[in-house]
Amino acid sequence: MTDIGKNSKDAKGKRQYEITIGLEVHAALSTTTKIFCACGTKFGEAPNSQTCPVCLGMPGVLPVLNENVVKYAIRAALALNCKFNLLNKFDRKNYYYPDLPKNYQISQDYLPIAHDGCLDIFLSSGKRKIRINNIHMEEDAGKNLHAGDTGLLDASLVDFNRAGVPLLEIVTYPDMHSVGEVEKLMTALRDILMYTGVADCKMEEGGLRFEANISLMPFGQTDLGPRVEMKNLNSFKTVIKALNYEIRRQEKSLRQGEKVTQETRLWDDKSGETSPMRSKEEAHDYRYFPEPDLVPLVIDEQLIEEIRSSLAELPASKLERFCKDYGLSEYDARVITSSRALADFYEEVAAVCKEPKTVSNWVTGELQGILNEEKRDIGDCPISPEQLAELLSLLSKGAVSAPSAKIILRDMFHSGKSAKAIIEEKGLSQISDEKDIRPAVKHIINTNTGIVDDYCKGKEKAIGALIGKVMKETRGRADPTKVSQILRELLEEEKRSR
Q1: pLDDT at 355 over 50
Q2: What is the rounded CA–CA span in Å between residue 35 and residue 26?
């Protein structure tokens, strides 16, 4: 996918417009109940089955703050290097949507729980720091289902199950200057939220959503251009598409001498375009005022320190340690540490099988390939770290060949049996004795005279085809190193005899 870079250029490569982007990220927290009531937050339940008078906004009801929401917010703020407002409070954000029955949202504006944080992203040019403006807690709205989604041709319905689900909104400063930087930031932020257990970030369930603010200005100008906000972008791919389109649209307007309107726009995935939603609001348009039904929230510094001490190792730190302690390349370490569950799985295997590079190859290669085929993730893997370590130890000792190990791994995945049980059951132990390998090698040489002729004429690579045929003949059980040695010995004898 095309990434429009930091400085938009004309056909001659001359810099014309500098791109400036900020993100507002909404993460649904991993609590089992909503932010102000005891209703469940499980995704996919029957419409309107997880509601009560509080989250339906009935008259006379009072919200009660979920303590775990505050703890998750503190955990995220610590991971993002934020400062805290030990005294913070909730505000009413007033606007009308049919999926918000109170006609206001309880959020935080004037005194959010945390502010002034930062997050590093890693680019080919080096490390860059993206500043976090603030982190605040708020409640989610419900979900509108329109004609076509409802099975009714002329009706829209509302599911309030999501109303009141706790959200953490993370607002960055406009520190990004290319779509590539935005993608790096989204990935780094998702990894931190998942590592800390704050959110599962399942975008297909609306667990992580984005709003992007973008402006273009002539290169060298100091004042930012008009800001356009794009709402409810629910995947990385959508954010990237929408930003690339919006950059081209604004660029075209500026080149034609037109003004870019400050507004909110919606992305249409079918047309691949953004369209106006409404003129851009400022804070006063929402008529924020202190939430009268909730007292100010005072956070104890001791609580912050307790949560700090319980934080798991974060992705950047784990990446550095994996490179140093296991001797992995940055690429391999980055793949493994992209998921806390995958990193934990890797470390458990590496603790038993003392060949970290081999473990990396099998975890990210063969095992991940099977998981992808089965549409499962490492957290749902039927092969335990101990079972994989046993297989790799047998491979390291020469008890099985690499081709046989791949067969055994698949069998372990589907049958749940141990590597040793499968080896014994299917007779897959490696053939290492030369007297057992030599007859198979001679047979392949005698039945593949064309390939042997190619080798004798100087085509060294022809030996690879013969090795493959010997491995097939022995059902992958022969020791490939010894197969190669015996083949080369016999082929050289053949070559000298001609």
Answers
A1: yes
A2: 14
